[in-house]
Design a protein that fits this description.
single chain; 104 residues; mainly alpha
């Protein structure tokens, strides 16, 4: 995960009109995701996401569907809480690791 202010290129996201640099504490102090957003700004760590361990490799198509549903669910949650205005652009959806061999 990176710490830059720009959305990951892998998302193909359009430029956003509101970023962490525009955020001050009073703007989101009462918002459900306000502490998260302001903490990201203060800490300088501007990416968030999930660490997911795949423990079975039987059905690649099912795995891809699962990842898509997870991503859409996270985006829907942001929309329902109003966090899509700011936090969606910082969601990091990279998959850097290869499968672990089944034998050691």
């Amino acid at each position: 995960m990176s710490t830059g202010n720009k959305p990951p290129a892998s998302l193909g996201a359009a430029p956003y009109r509101f970023t962490l640099k525009d955020l001050d504490e009073s703007m989101w102090s009462e918002h459900p995701l306000g502490r998260t957003a302001f903490g990201m700004k203060v800490s300088g760590f501007h990416r968030w996401g999930f660490v997911i361990y795949r423990t079975t490799y039987n059905d690649d198509a099912m795995w891809e569907r699962y990842l898509q549903v997870l991503k859409l669910s996270a985006q829907d949650c942001l929309v329902s809480l109003g966090g899509d205005v700011l936090l969606e652009q910082y969601m990091d959806c990279t998959r850097p690791f290869e499968p672990v061999p089944s034998t050691f």
